[in-house]
Specification:
501 residues, alpha+beta, Thrombin, subunit H, 4 domains, 32 strands
Length: 501
């Protein structure tokens, strides 16, 4: 179709008018101004952008991807990985799957030019050496990685691949890390190798992160909002100097994926553990044999008190600083030295103890078979006790513990159960929403509880005919029954009554 020349001329005039219209002309000038401002701002931000680039370039060659695969005809356990913290823990479900492979993904950090790699224990746990494949930065694959050593108490492990002149990452000083510091996480989320994410340190010194914690587990986690997803476990969390300040280990999530809360084991623990595993294949640690809690409102509730202030009043404390002793296990350094439930540990070896994290650090660094002076506050008076540090046992099977119930009323508890209060988050994640009771955290081997079929994750709602709503109630009722030397029946959700003999 051919248009008249006058029509084409008219369109040209209209276009010229619009182009020179004040509205369009003003908008064009505004866009040009914004572009120029962005160019100027980019000059300011370029050093930070270059920092992120260079850190990634520096550290990425030291990060490997780990894949595991078991092809045996066994029940496969599918685990969302990284680990999910206790408050949002979702238990593994066993599914009979004849011949179906069990697979896993994770990351690792080259920490020695000879091919030593640091990763999480839960990444390789359950797999033999010929079922572990390491993929390096350049895509080269290494099969049959040798397991040098594992340390379940920190959820760390060291493996080794054959070769030389690998580029090791450098550890930083995790004690210098502050909340608000920029950090970078590198790993293989969902199998996407060499993925880099950024964020900040959201908190430090986090504990009670690993689900169903064992007694005397060593925890000191950085919390970060850098994206950590399944497959990131074992990878590094680094500072803007390109130094490893943490090992990415766990996430808090309700969806199974990243929701802004990730956790990394501090480099101080990771470095010590890796060095011990490489040199000796195992980690030898001292221990005291106490269960402790920070002095806060949560502790007050567990003791049947109103708040932290009432704790200070009842125990004659001038300050909330210190580690409150909730439990003392039998035949341990603590019990032999005379430490009791209700004591507040205020100093170890001349170092002041302000909270449970300080206590954990001090015990972790204590030498086995060495004596240390431990100061405890008891009835408002500080006492000095000599504690002979012993090697931490593999487990505590057969040991009992004395636990504080209501102030200074201790009780023996030797049926092989460790229980915790059931909070709303745990109840929801385990399908116990709206239920009342106590959650089974650990069951000792060959104990009455194990023989009765009780397992971690079970919910106990009754002792005899009486309902229990808290650990304090549960312990009180158990104390009554144990005083009669008769079998005790407890009601377990979804299992019914079981008898402990």
């Amino acid at each position: 179709m051919r248009y008249p020349k006058i029509f084409i001329s008219l369109l040209a005039v209209i276009a010229l008018f619009l182009f020179n219209c004040p509205v369009f002309a003003g908008r064009s000038a505004e866009v040009d101004k914004l572009k120029q401002e962005l160019i100027e701002l980019e000059k300011i931000t370029k050093p930070l952008i270059e920092t992120f680039r260079k850190v990634s370039q520096l550290v990425s060659p030291s990060v490997v991807s780990l894949s595991t695969e078991k092809k045996e005809s066994v029940k496969s356990s599918v685990e969302t990985e990284p680990r999910q913290p206790q408050q949002n823990f979702q238990p593994k479900q066993d599914h009979p799957s004849e011949g179906a492979p069990k697979k896993g993904l994770g990351s690792g950090i080259i920490i020695d030019a000879r091919g030593y790699i640091l990763t999480n224990n839960h990444v390789i746990s359950g797999f033999s050496e010929d079922e572990i494949t390491v993929v390096a930065y350049n895509g080269e694959q290494y099969r049959n990685a040798r397991v040098v050593g594992i340390d379940p108490n920190t959820d760390l492990a060291v493996i080794k691949i054959e070769g030389e002149d690998f580029l090791p990452a450098e550890f930083g000083n995790s004690e210098e890390v502050q909340v608000g510091d920029w950090v970078i996480a590198i790993g293989s989320p969902f199998g996407y190798q060499q993925t880099v994410s950024t964020g900040i340190i959201s908190a430090k010194g986090r504990t009670h992160v690993i689900p169903f914690v064992l007694p005397f587990l060593y925890e000191d986690f950085f919390q970060t909002d850098a994206a950590i997803n399944p497959g990131n476990s074992g990878g590094p969390l680094v500072n803007l100097r390109g130094e490893v300040i943490g090992v990415n280990t766990a996430i808090a999530t309700r969806s199974g994926g990243f929701q802004g809360v990730g956790f990394a084991i501090s480099a101080s623990i990771a470095k010590e553990t890796a060095e011990d595993l490489i040199s000796a294949g195992t980690v030898v640690r001292g221990y005291f044999g106490v269960g402790t809690h920070d002095i806060n409102d949560d502790l007050a509730v567990s003791l049947g008190l109103r708040d932290k202030k009432e704790i200070l009043e009842r125990f004659g404390l001038p300050t909330e600083l210190g580690a409150f002793v909730l439990e003392v296990w039998s035949d341990t350094p603590a019990s032999k030295a005379g430490i009791r439930p209700g004591d507040i540990i205020s100093e170890i070896g001349g170092k002041r103890i302000e909270n449970t994290t300080d206590l954990q650090h001090a015990i972790r660094r204590a030498k086995v078979d060495a004596k240390v002076i431990v100061k405890v506050v008891r009835n408002g008076v500080e006492n000095a006790l000599d504690v002979l540090v012993e090697r931490q046992p593999e487990d505590l099977a057969g040991k009992t513990y004395v636990a504080i119930r209501k102030m200074d009323e201790p009780m023996k508890f030797s049926l092989g159960l460790v229980v915790n209060d059931l909070n709303q988050d745990i109840a929801k994640s385990l399908g116990f929403e709206g239920e009342r009771g106590v959650l089974v955290v650990d069951v000792e081997s060959n104990s009455p509880a194990e023989r009765a079929g009780i397992k971690p994750g079970d919910l106990i709602t009754k002792v005899g005919a009486k309902e229990v709503h808290s650990v304090i109630e549960f312990m009180s009722l158990m104390d009554e029954f144990m005083g009669t030397n008769k079998p005790v029946s407890i009601f377990v959700k979804n299992k019914g009554f079981v008898t402990l003999k």
